[in-house]
Design brief:
Length: 415
Amino acid sequence: MTDQRVAVRANHLHKVFSPEEGRIGATLARGETVDFDRVRGTAAVIDADFEVRKGESFVVMGLSGSGKSTLIRMLNGLNKPTSGTMEINGTNLTNASKEEVRRIRRDQISMVFQHFALLPHRTVAANVAYGLEVKKAPRDEQREQSQYWMDRVGLGDVGDKYPDELSGGMRQRVGLARALAAGTEILLMDEAFSALDPLIRSDLQSQLVELQAELGKTVVFITHDLNEAMKLGDRVAVMRNGRIVQIGTAPQLITEPADDYVARFIADVDRSRVLTAGMVADTTAPTITSTNTTGAELARTMIERGHTVSTVLRGRRPIGIVRLQDAEAEPQRSAADLMLSEPTVPRIEPIGDHFGLAARRRGPLVVVDRQGELVGLLTQDRLLAAMSDEGLRETPSHPEPGPPEHEPLTTGGAR
């Protein structure tokens, strides 16, 4: 039975560029072992086995020649596997007809390339609308969607220009707008930002993270840059010599590298820039939805749960916090009287942006998702702990946006 939560699934995927590819494929299909070191040709991908959940940002990272670009070309049917299968939303792309592959590319997958791949004879607006034109969308829809996505990525005033009139960063924004305008669920991005200057690259990375948080696309992103991988990926797959050697979240790769190769790869990573507020936030602290709750009730629950702070919610949105010391000092007062208003920080922002703010506050920072709903709390101790392996192991590996882990203490409406 097809898992509706999975957008992309690779099953024991191999790709060997060799005059003996047919024989190698038949050998693998029989379940027999192949010595890829002795194969005549290149074993570009060896036994890749993974799933990408719908709405997930999945990054494939590796050095040049590791097999990552070959892998993404099998994801969109450009390379036929030597052995194994690739599924897109439950459809086996490997055995699909040419017509079915074209339909999947048109309706379910958009691609953003390293070197832009724009049509030079078309204006920016026409390039952005290209996917909709292929789908034979009405002209008005093409114009409307083209303008909308140009505005979203900062291209609103260049629609009548041609690609050769734009900078590299602007051209890549055109490629991103084109992929988004096509309206597909899955975005494949092959070294999409690697040809750009560092500042432009960082800006586009941040923009992609923000758009992904809002749109919930399924993104498969190829890169050779570790910091980029950890900034963009919900999970990261590390490739070496055609094999996936580890798949994990940024904290997992940092604290539990699968082998010496991964350990060397991540040795110099800047944790303050790749770990986000959502990754290290405490998602287990108690919450309340009634500001009539007394300090005595709050103190008792915080002590029972081993926490020193409760978050006050209106719906799922935080409106303040109550500290244990304040609840104990004035047990008869209500949460409305004891509540402190603390700043909120987006879950996608790196923790390095918040050390100064955390140091100036009496309470923790409140981490929220794009809808302003509670993700968790970020304390000074938690920020500092995230900079060490031991402290990072104690944090959640990668909390998802959504409601708090615990049910509210009471269910009365906020006053």
